[in-house]
Write a structure and sequence with these properties.
This protein has 374 residues and is of the alpha+beta class. It contains 13 helices and 12 strands. The structure holds adenosine-5'-diphosphate. Adenosine-5'-diphosphate (ADP) binds next to α10 and α12.
């Protein structure tokens, strides 16, 4: 019986150990526990990964399996040394603290938040460090800062031009023709500001709570295409571009009509803007295995491969001057991508420089869901 009880106890212990290891390994945070001499008592795989990030350790310092001395060495490694300094301070001051360190990683710099806390149990002293990789958060912060800087710049450009032309008009009497020319420029710049602001508002509307407010309805693509075609007709005619609709009049799916129209306006107006005289723009759609594909095809200037990965970034333009000249805000494709994202969809681009581009929006087909009457 004793033997059986012993076995049961061992089994429980084993299970507990597995559980503990699973939890520690699964944690996003890395945990290092050391005694007051800096000997490592516990170190989770995530912690090892972060501590070894620098890649500057020699093999000797990597061996932490045998004696205490090698562990000690290990702790004196590059990234680890910074962490140990913090741990030592926590021990000395007997105080918790949080720090953000910059670790040299295998590829790039990583930002690691380190929480250190002294521990005391049954007379022995130790210290705990919890490491959290916050690189992604830092990147998001950076992106937000870049965005604000970009917006400021984009707003300033037309404003500078507007105030410049007002000064010119004020400086001396102008002939009616000259004045008219200035008014036209003022008009264009004011429109540019308006477009920019409305695109920014759209974008933030889509990003913020639109998910909750997004009301799906039956969308008939043909009727949207028809509307967009007549809206774009004047601009297309001016550029000698013809617009075509290759959509089955019965092609319907569940989505928000306003958003889908916006997506199609943005893609089709780009297809007109970046086209050549005598060019074509075609809107088409098809269903395939639970998805719908909406494509806008043009025979325009096309896009070089190197630009494709960044095309959907806010304010990214292949040619800044061409986009500005055509009244572009640099936000059209970012809006398209966000709208597709609202439905769990995506956008693909196939393009050949000088020949034309195809932008395809792929959305999950919600026709059945919707018709079940949710
Ligand atoms: P913009 O307001 O500048 O048009 P978008 O976000 O709509 O901004 O597009 C970003 C850039 O992608 C454009 O400046 C242009 O260089 C390129 N682009 C978009 N659509 C096309 C297209 N159909 N053909 C060629 N280039 C395109």
């Amino acid at each position: 019986r004793l033997l059986r009880r012993n076995e049961a106890m061992l089994e429980t212990e084993r299970k507990q150990k597995i559980l503990q290891e699973t939890v520690l390994t699964g944690l996003n945070e890395g945990i290092v526990l050391a005694d007051s001499e800096g000997r490592i008592l516990l170190e989770t795989p995530t912690a090892s990964k972060l501590l070894f990030g620098g890649g500057l350790h020699d093999e000797r310092s990597r061996r932490k399996d045998t004696d205490m001395l090698s562990q000690y060495f290990y702790l004196r490694g590059v990234n680890a040394r910074y962490v140990w300094q913090l741990m030592e301070t926590a021990l000395k001051d007997n105080e918790d603290s949080v720090h953000t360190l910059e670790f040299a990683g295998d590829e790039a710099l990583r930002f690691v938040e380190v929480y250190v806390s002294p521990l005391r149990s049954e007379g022995s002293r130790g210290v705990l460090a919890v490491l959290r990789d916050v690189t992604h958060l830092k990147q998001l912060e950076q992106m937000r800062r870049d965005f604000v800087a970009n917006v400021t710049h984009e707003l300033k450009t037309p404003l500078t031009s507007i105030s410049g032309y007002i000064d010119l008009l004020r400086a001396r009497r102008r002939s009616p023709e000259e004045a008219e020319q200035f008014y036209t420029i003022l008009d264009i710049e004011a429109d540019r500001l308006e477009n920019l602001i409305s695109d920014l508002l759209e974008l933030s509307e889509i990003e913020e709570g639109d998910r909750q407010r997004l009301r799906n309805e039956e969308v008939r693509l043909y009727s949207i295409g028809d509307e967009v075609l007549s809206e774009l007709e004047p601009a297309a005619a001016e550029r000698e571009v013809s617009l075509h609709l290759e959509v089955d009049p019965d092609f319907v799916f569940m989505a928000n009509r306003h958003r889908i129209k916006q997506l199609i306006v943005n893609l089709m107006s780009n297809a007109v803007k970046y086209n050549k005289p005598g060019g074509k723009v075609v809107l088409s759609a098809e269903r395939e295995r639970g998805r719908i594909r909406i494509s806008v095809r043009d025979t325009g200037i096309g896009i070089a491969d190197e630009h494709i990965p960044r095309l959907f970034e806010r304010f990214y333009r292949v040619s800044k001057s061409r986009s500005r000249e055509l009244g572009g805000t640099g936000l059209g494709l970012a809006i398209v991508k966000h709208i597709a994202g609202l439905y769990g969809g995506s956008v693909q681009v196939v393009s050949e420089e000088g020949k034309g581009s195809v932008f395809t929006v792929i959305l999950p087909d919600r026709k059945e869901n919707g018709s079940k009457g949710a």
